Amino acid sequence: MRILFICTGNTCRSPMAEAILNHRDEPHIEVRSAGLFAMEGGMASHNAQQVLEENGLTHDHRSHTVTQSDVHWADYVFAMTSSHKAMLMEQFPFAADRIFTLKEFSSERGLDVSDPYGGPVEVYRSTFNELNRLMDSMLKNLNKQEQGGF
User: Fold this and answer.
1) What is the pTM for the complete model shown?
2) Which regions span the lipid bilayer (predicted)?
C-alpha cells in the first residue's frame, strides 16, 4: 500500500507524518510526502527536525512539489487541510476517490491538521502529537477498508 501525505510547502506537517509512519512497523506500507507549493530540495524546517529527533525519529528529507506521477503512485493521498484536498481534487480529478484529509479518513472532528509553520517548537510538538495520534486512527481505518468494512 502506498501513501502520499500533502501539505503546503512539504517542510513541516507532511514530512513529520511521513517520518512517523515510516518508523511504525508497517512493512506493507510505502510512504512519501510532497507539497502543493514546495521549494524543490529544501530541508524540513529546523523545528520539525528537532521534534522528530526528540522523539527518536530520523528523516533525511528534501521538499518536493506534488506531481501527477506522485498521485498515480499513491493508493491513498492524505491532505493536511480541506483546502489542500480541494486543490488536489482540482489538479488531479482522476484520483478523487483516493484523496482525503488525514482527519477525515481518521474519523476525527474537524478537517485540518494545525499548521506549525513559523511557530515556536512547542507548536511543532503539538502538531507532532496530533499527527502521531492520527496515524493510529488512519492505520485502523486503512485495515478496515482493506478488509472491506470502512
Assistant:
1) 0.96
2) none
